UniProtKB/TrEMBL annotation:
It comes from the Bacteria. GO terms for biological process: aerobic respiration. HAMAP family: NDH1_NuoH. It comes from Hymenobacter arizonensis (Siccationidurans arizonensis). This is NADH-quinone oxidoreductase subunit H. It catalyses: a quinone + NADH + 5 H(+)(in) = a quinol + NAD(+) + 4 H(+)(out). GO terms for cellular component: plasma membrane. The keyword Translocase applies. The chain crosses the membrane at residues 6-29, 77-99, 119-140, 160-178, 256-280, 300-323, 335-363. Keywords: Cell membrane, Membrane, NAD, Quinone, Translocase, Transmembrane, Transmembrane helix, Ubiquinone. The gene is nuoH. Its EC number is 7.1.1.-. It holds the Pfam family NADHdh. It is a multi-pass membrane protein. NDH-1 shuttles electrons from NADH, via FMN and iron-sulfur (Fe-S) centers, to quinones in the respiratory chain. The immediate electron acceptor for the enzyme in this species is believed to be ubiquinone. Couples the redox reaction to proton translocation (for every two electrons transferred, four hydrogen ions are translocated across the cytoplasmic membrane), and thus conserves the redox energy in a proton gradient. This subunit may bind ubiquinone.
């Protein structure tokens, strides 16, 4: 049975959402394993072989916990807050190109949920909307610690979104497009020099912009050392202090999905996305030496590109977790000072530097 193209793309969207949820679920397991390794102790090892069923056990625990509503809380908004955080996190992954095109006869399947020519703005907008879920949940809890955590999250996200947006402007100046797919294609080359793809990645043209972006990504995802909205030492648990059951789980899953999306966006914008070295040579070798059809060879390259992209994504996720268990938390004044007095001026300088390099033909 053949599906129309909209049916195939709808299936891709469901797969993308499913993969996002699966990665978020097992990111909790990876976090515990990495923490145990760095602290020289035993991690989860009871639920299933090597503790692989621990995320499922955690999900069952969250689903079966008693629902709790604080006295004086706005019940509708108390439930709506974590739902909004989860929905915006999932929607951010819809425009990320996870691979090139798979061709089966007359059917071409784009390994991307939706392709829009303003994909970069779409991701940026969805990430910006996510803070409303935190703000609504913190305010609706009728708890001063939750409200303080929500206010911290809002001011932190606003501050670091400015520097992140300025870093993206420098990428836009080089690529002349807001489409994540087009940006990915621009970071490849058919030149015979096999490492030319790596030198064509935007991280080689924008090293300062990448550093600014990854620091802002830590702040946007509320990860250590910028996890001030949920600082246990002074705010108990921050904006989700009063949450339990699956509502708490939605906030936790949303954070890990945001980490996955941030890692994917960095891989696409700065590290070539699904491109990898030797891909042109490998495709030509499959056609000339192995006798494969060009379409079949290209499908193999596409699958390898998906594997390469997820390797980059998992490397960034590991980096997020490594930093959490290595660096101490910033003070709140240090956090705001870093964003306003260091990152934003650096991002503006990066734009001016990029403009000068483009003007004099150093960067094309």
């Amino acid at each position: 049975m053949t599906l129309p193209i909209l049916g195939w793309q709808g299936l891709v969207v469901l797969v993308v959402f499913g993969v996002s949820l699966l990665i978020a679920t097992y990111s909790t397991y990876a976090e515990r394993v990495i923490a145990a390794f760095l602290q020289d102790r035993v991690g989860p090892d009871r639920a299933g072989p090597f503790g692989l069923l621990q995320p499922l056990a955690d999900a069952v625990k969250l689903f079966t916990k008693e629902e709790f509503f604080p006295a004086g809380a706005n019940r509708a908004l108390f439930v709506f807050g974590p739902c909004l955080a989860m929905v915006t996190a999932l929607m951010s992954s819809a425009v990320i190109p996870f691979g090139n095109v798979l061709q089966f006869g007359e059917t071409a399947i784009h390994l991307q949920g939706i392709e829009i020519n303003v994909g970069m703005l779409y991701v940026f907008g969805m990430v910006s909307l996510g803070v409303y879920g935190i703000m609504i949940g913190g305010w609706a809890s009728n708890n001063k610690f939750s409200l303080l955590g929500a206010i911290r999250a809002a001011s932190q996200n606003i501050s670091y979104e400015i520097a992140m947006g300025l870093a993206l402007i420098a990428v836009l100046m080089i690529s002349n497009t807001l489409s994540l797919r087009e940006i990915t294609f621009q970071q490849t080359s058919e030149a015979p020099f096999v490492w030319n793809d790596i030198f064509n990645w935007n991280v080689m043209k924008q090293p300062l912009g990448f550093i600014i972006f990854i620091v802002c990504a830590f702040a946007e995802t509320n990860r250590t050392p910028f996890d001030l909205p949920e600082c246990e030492t002074e705010l108990i648990g921050g904006y989700h202090t009063e949450y339990s059951s699956m509502k708490m789980g939605l906030y936790l899953f949303a954070e890990y999905i945001n980490v996955f999306v941030a890692s994917a966006v960095m891989s696409v914008l700065y590290f070539g996305g699904f491109n990898f070295p030797f891909q042109a040579e490998l495709r030509n070798w499959l056609v000339s030496s192995q006798g494969l059809e060009l379409v079949t060879a290209q499908n193999i390259i596409t699958i390898l590109g998906v594997v390469g992209l997820f390797t980059k994504i998992f490397s960034f996720i590991f980096f997020f977790m490594w930093v959490r268990w290595t660096l101490p938390r910033f003070r709140y004044d240090q956090l705001m000072r870093l964003g306003w007095t260091i990152l934003i001026p650096l991002a503006i300088f990066n734009i001016m530097l990029t403009g000068g390099l483009i003007t004099f033909g150093v960067i094309k």
